[in-house]
Amino acid sequence: RKISSVHLFSAKALDDFSHVRQEEVATLTRSLASAGKTPVKLGQLLNVCTTNALARVMLGRKVFNDGGSKSDPKAEEFKSMVEEMMVLAGSFNLGDFIPILGWFDLQGIVGKMKKLHARFDAFLNAILEEHKLINNQRTTLSKDVDFLSTLLRLRDNGADTDGEEGKLTDIEIKALLLNLFTAGTDTSSSTVEWAFAELLRNPEILSQAQQELDLVVGTNRLVTESDLTQLPFLQAIVKETFRLHPSTPLSLPRIGAESCKINGYFIPKGATLLVNVWAIARDP
To answer: What cofactor does this protein call for (predicted)?
Structure first.
C-alpha cells in the first residue's frame, strides 16, 4: 500500500504522469470523432483508454491497440482473462455458503480459477522478463520510467531513498500488478460509461455541460486537468455519477475481527460483511 501511495498516487506521481492520461483521452476522442455517425462500442473504447493509461504508468507501454481494426493477440488474451476473472469472482459458489462442499468443487469454479491463475502467471512472467531485459540496458543511475521498474529495483536493492524497506519477491510484484489492473480498469471504464448513459438520458443536463465547456475551454482545444477547477457543473456530474453508480455497489467484503452488536444486530467474529453502498447513496 505504501509503495503504491508513493509511486502511483502521490501528488508528484500524478503530476509526472498527467501527460499519459491526457494522451490516452486524446486518442479516445480521436477514435470517437473518426467514427462519425457509425455506431461504436463505447464500453470497449473506454476500457482500452483506461487500461492503456494505467499500463503506460505501470509498465511503460500500452497493452491494447487504440481500438482500431488491427488485432493485438496479447491484448485480446489479457482482456479475456480479466473478463473471465470478473465472471468467476461473481459466480454463485455453493462452497462459499456450505464450506464442506468447497472440498468437492461441484460447480468446477475452483478448477477454473486455478487454470486462470496459471494463465495470468504466465502472462505476468513474460512482462517481468521483458522488463528485466529493458532495465539491464539502462544505467544504474537512470531514473525509473514506470512503476514496474521501481518494483524491480526494490526487489533487487531492498530499500530506496523513499524509505521502503524489505525486498519484494516476484510473486508479490505479480500480485500487486494484477490487483491494480483488475481493480483499476473495468471499474473506471464502467463508471465513465454510466456517466455517458445518464447524460444521454438527460439531454438538458448534457446541453448545460456543453455550454460550460464552450464558455470555459472554448472549441479549439480539449479539456485538460487544469481546467477542472473552473468546471463546477462538470464536477457535479462526476459526483452524481459516483453516487448513482458506485464502481463496487456492495463495496469490498470485510471480515468481523471480533464479535459485536451494532444497532441490535449481532455480528459474530469471522462473519463476512458487505456494505450496500448503492442503497446508502440512494437513501433520501
So the answer is: heme
